[in-house]
Queue: 3 jobs
Job 1
Amino acid sequence: MHDDIEAVLLSEAAIHRRLDELARRITADYDDGQPLSVVALLNGSIPFLADLLRRIPLPLRVESLRVSSYQGRASRGTVRFHEPALPEVCGRRVLLVDDILDTGETLRAVQERFTAEAGASDLRTCVLLRKERQIPPRAQADYVAFSIPDRFVVGYGLDCDGLYRNLPYIGVLREERAP
Ligand code: 5GP
Ligand code: MG
């Protein structure tokens, strides 16, 4: 698995150090005694979510939503919701957590559905990675752990054809390993 990686972009230690900072900021921003609903966009956010949550000592609930927009390494441009219903968050503060903000189509589609249907009292977004692209993304994130160059990356939740999510770091996949 490690042999398929051309370069490590963010080491496990660098990710964890940055999560310490990000979690401190989120904790300070939400620290008023009201519970928070964290909604994880599956599957890519699983390791990020697990590591982030354990650093936030606030009353919170965890919900999830399975969405996809990528197949292999090419964005399909359409966002697919795998379940018909959104999590129950009416009247609650929501923090959406995703792995990466690339074109922003995914986050935008999810934000639009939450705004139209969920009745959350506050909606913010948190991503592990934001790609530095020439075209601005279609959605913004309130919390970003890292900005990265516009390369196709895998690991720490990010996949290629369902694989590599279990790498403990973020790396660039070797060209010949692409589907
Ligand atoms: P967007 O809708 O912002 O273009 O893309 C968001 C989704 O596409 C992410 O949640 C992620 O699943 C996938 N994605 C975008 N860029 C990458 C990348 O560099 N590597 C991988 N593995 N997935 C990506
Ligand atoms: Mg995703």
Note: The CA atoms of residues 128 and 145 lie 5 Å apart.
Job 2
Amino acid sequence: MKDLSKSEIWLVTGSQHLYGEEVLTSVASHSRELAAGLDKSEFVPVQVVFKSVVTTAGQITEVCQQANSAHSCIGVVVWMHTFSPAKMWIRGLQILNKPLAHLHTQYHTEIPWESIDMDFMNENQSAHGDREFGFITSRLRIPRKVVVGHWKQPSAQQQLGTWARVAAGWAALQNTRVARIGDNMRQVAVTEGDKVAAQARFGFEVNGYGLGDVVKHVKDINQSQVTQLVEEYHQRYHMPSDSRHQESVKEAARIELGLRSFLEAGEFQAFTDTFENLYGLKQLPGIAVQRLMADGFGFGAEGDWKTAALLRAIKVMDQGLPGGSSFMEDYTYDFNPQRPLVLGAHMLEICPSIARGKPSVEVHPLGIGGKEDPARLVFDSDAGPAINVSLIDLGHRFRLVANEVEVKQPSHELPRLPVARVLWAPQPGLEVAAHCWILAGGAHHTVFSKAITMEFLEDFAEIAGVELVIIDKDTRTRDLKQQLRWNEAYYQLAERG
Ligand code: MN
């Protein structure tokens, strides 16, 4: 995965010639200082590069063209230090195809009560200069993130840092190749969709591969590679002592090596499989998929290419953040009225980036698929806030459905459930959350993340131009039902579907 610190966001400062050279020199020097300050911020993981103070329509158009063609540039941050008549911005904003953030800040923190004079007022006009820019971006219906606050303060830096991470995820998605291995679980609806529309909207491509393509790589793995990987398992996980199980673990290691080799050779960043189509593999890939996810690959089970691509994007965004992100499925409920909960898991494929403590490698039969007993990592997850997000294809457009949840420690042992699992309380409560999720058509598969917040998804939806249905502590079923109806009309009218 590309290191976030190699990516750049460009600061472009708007002004005009009305104020004279002296003011423009000062504006440039303040901008340089501001960019350096943001660049050093612990909340901003990418490089912040000051590009220029722009004072004409020609300069604005040129810097937008440069941003479009610079590979290292993942987004543009604009700030109006002084007033910058916004008709100058029309052409540039119309051609800009990188994510845009509008930083509404000012150079000074507090009003300098004693010294403030008309020269100061002339030079520091962002309080109204940024409103002129806000008008033109709204007038042109340009998607962007607006960040308000003083640039030295954590709140503004955090908001900008979140947007920069999302912009990095977006940039990665433009070059993401998803391998759909063995097509779809038969008859399942939500994992299907329009791959051409998805590529046009989000940038990632999805192509199908037969199991034989993977099996070829598995067969090419030699014994010493298997021995070495099993040794790594021994160092990192609790291992089974039963000798028959150890044979299964060796086979699982061979599948991991083969699958990894297939993905690397094809330059894939995400993949799907399905238990109904495992021809030539002895086990359903369990530990293989789990460890590949932990290394940053996106994954969706049963052919779920939308969740696989979304997980990949979120893995790019969450680099270096505490927590982790995984493929997930709502499995079963606890309708205990005192503490209603959801038990999330999958047959095997949960990412150990969300694990509490050292996972155990276990081998158990799988009720479906008709293959040998697969090896998998088993673990629980720490308590704390998390989100679940699903990407669905509504036929004429896409929708993201997201729910804020609180992970709980299990109050009981689960001695006979040999899969990684997470227990959570959805906001605002199980009944409302599940009701709204179902009304919105959210999938049973999700990306579960303890690393990112709803703000990431808001920024992502804005950049992608797709609907985001949020279910959180303020959600009311009645209001959400109306929101879905209004949004249906809005996206038809806005032709952004
Ligand atoms: Mn599933």
Note: Residues 177-496 form one domain.
Job 3
Amino acid sequence: MTKLFGTNGIRGIVNEEMNCDLALGIGKAWGTYLKKTNNRPKVAIGTDARLSNHMLKNAISAGLLATGCDVVDVGMVPTPTLQYVVKEKDFESGVIITSSHNPPEFNGIKGIAADGTEFSKDIEEEIEKIYFEQSYVLAGWKDVGSFSTWDGAIDLYINGILNAVDVELIKEKQYHVVLDCGNGAGCPVTPILLEKLGCKITKLYCEPDGTFPGHNSEPLPENLADLIKKVPEVSADLGAAQDGDADRAIFVDEKGNYIWGDKSLALCAKFAVIQKNGGIAVTPVTTSSCFDDVVLKNGGEVIHTMVGSPIVARVMIDKNSVFGGEENGGLIFPEMQYCRDSAMSIAKIMEIMAKNNKTLSELIDTIPKYEVHKTKMPCPNDKKEIVMETLAEQTKDDSSVLEVDETDGVKLYLNDGWVLMRPSGTEPIFRVYAESKDKSRAEEIALTYKKMAEEIINQN
Ligand code: MG
């Protein structure tokens, strides 16, 4: 069976792999799945700012309606806004039409469960199975679903954030923020939120436009050149950028320094643990040790998970965690909801600045610095398992290896850093991540274990 759902829902180029027929079929399969446990499921649907959104929204809605689901269209919203609506308004499911940070020719479909979290692999597999078998169960003519629109999603979401942060404290500071929505789904939401937090706003690319005229919607340094330049130019307190569907946020400090996502992640983890006098912070095995350092130092505990934000969110719920997230700017605040939330991240970063009466650069300076070396190596798919097993086995007796973690690939903790060999799910390669305080040492660690893996491939 071909897989439809990847790590982030279904994605593809519009009118090639991502077309109306697929969306209609997925809608029918989704509805058939929901109807198994609910007589009249209510599904919220929203989109990002892409040009093909209406085409896909209407096709998937038609499928859902045909199976007897009621569909409520909440319009153009960030992914976390739709997630919040599903959770707060008791929808059985949510559909977000988005392809996140991908180029404009892409679009996609992502599923949200009743609790507002992203679909688990199990749910996706059930929907895929119905789709490929075409075992749709359509409603009788009297029972097809109803379609309506609701324009309350953005207010509900903004109020949710305002209830989860110290609004008065942030307002007092009258922060000047340069906001770069990247012409994406953050446009209708984030400027309003910042106004309510008493901020002065300098806007960059805050008009929704699915051609992404401002810049590519992945918030990498090369795409945020205008933001990086603007923050010191207008003497702002910080810069904030959102990706295409506004689930991830990236920050620029008052001096115009781009802050990598591992730093903002660690900063929020640190203050979550301080505020709650300890607690569990959750992040994938790929995250920098600066996260572990600040959490442990402040009396918290760290749980490392497999890569993927739905997995992080699920572990956070199960362990009653105080904070979690990924180092790509996807931060999860349980006081709001269990999903990556960029607008909440922006409000929270300002709250941390205000509470500590410090600039963003001063706060980031408190986060330990590590050097990362990333590389990859070819490995036939059928040898990935043996490489990981042998690496784990061989290094168990190696005195320089302090711990072997097999959560996702093989991660070896050394006394001066770590290395992670992680098999790609789609390509015949291993991704190799190594980290140390020293740049050349990080590279040396990566090369040493890459070589060891190559020898294992040759011997097997
Ligand atoms: Mg995204």
Note: The longest strand covers residues 371-378.
